[in-house]
Write a structure and sequence with these properties.
Layout (H helix, E strand, L loop, with lengths): L5 E5 L7 H13 L4 E8 H7 L3 H14 L7 E7 L13 E5 L10 H11 L4 E4 L6 E4 L1 H28 L6 E5 L9 H13 L4 E5 L16 H21 L7 E4 L6 H14 L3 E5 L2 H13 L1 H16 L1 H5 L16 H4 L4 H8 L10 H8 L2 H7 L1 H9 L1 H20 L4
Parallel strand pairs: 1-2, 1-10, 2-3, 3-4, 4-7, 7-8, 8-9, 9-10
Antiparallel strand pairs: 5-6
Helix pairs in contact: 1-3, 1-17, 4-5, 5-6, 6-7, 7-8, 8-17, 9-10, 9-13, 9-17
The chain binds zinc ion.
Zinc ion (ZN) binds next to loops.
Length: 416
Amino acid sequence: MQLSTYSIGIGDRFAHQGKAQLAAIMKAREEGVLITPVWNKSFREHSTIHTQPMDTRQAADAAVKALNWNEAYFVDADHVGLKTVDLFLDASDFFTLDVADYIEKPTAEKDIDAFVNKFQKYSGELAFPGIDEKFEVNQSKIREIAHKYLFAVQEAGRIYRHILSKKAGDQFVVEVSMDETKEPQTPLEMFFILAAIAQEGIPVRTIAPKFTGRFNKGVDYVGDLKQFTKEFEQDLAVIQMVKKEFSLPSDLKLSVHSGSDKFSLYKPIHQALRKFNAGLHLKTAGTTWLEEVIGLAMAGGDGLALAKKIYRKAFDRFDELCLPYATVIDIDTVVLPQPDDVDKWDSRMFVGKLKHDRRNPLYDLNFRQLLHVGYKVAAEMGDRYLKALDQHAEIIGQNVAENIFERHIKVLFLGK
Ligand SMILES: [Zn+2]
């Protein structure tokens, strides 16, 4: 099974929207673009919802079977390390090795020396086809990068070899992620990180660097668009070069995490992909859950009442729910709607506040972000929530599919 040039990570917290998500991808295929669906769910989400990776696998398999999808698809063990990977071994065939926490951890000096010796041949001026800027390389720069990143890449190697030992003979896709860190990697850092990944023998297919700006959950990008575009193009240029230079897989591509709703980035990304003839993996996750709440609110009656109840509980547990996501949300509590006011809203008002439509004056990104992290409340409702999903499956499914196709795929992959 091959990951195609374009792939999309589709999270589905409650494992109810597999078909709706796949329907969006099938629509893209009808319009001439093949996108590989990758169902992703992290250890954190599984723990919060009390699901197992095998639940994700079963939901994905069922959706694929129901809609007769005869192309590749994957189930991603999202953001795993040595401590968590075992839980995902049976269910997953895509592994996102998260080594961000190992950046700047001390590395054996002999390993640093060996790395510098091996790659000092790149000393001088380094240029990447497709970008004008040239980069000055010398031994001390290589050493500095090795000090910062070599241990993290070695950790990725340890996780990879562990998976390999357990899944011998099975094919699986490997992603290396360093996105959950403070500083974006420079082009030179990317170059030598990929050199180190090649040296570790990791057949990396997607790499998730940290990009400039804020990738808050479920809302648009906040940052310097020009700077982002510049860095994104640099990353693409580096990746194109390292494939040959270090004999990495020829379909190696970038992976953009927290990719839901980064609407202002999709056009520049699409243009950059065209320019470099490059592929992309876009990870989205949490917004499918928000489409469920939107669908419930649209349904009115019991559905709307349940959506309001979820909001009230999330509001009451603000600190607890926001804490795990502190670095990826920005909620202005002063203007956050009070539950008593929300209770008075009709369907149109609730949906208008929640749906990510920046042209709608009702749209409220504070309200949206709090509900985004509020899935724990729905998880605790258990059957009551799941039954509501079944009861309003049609209207929810329409919202889920429309969100993925119209607002994400169309702009990013079809360039419309
Ligand atoms: Zn990530």
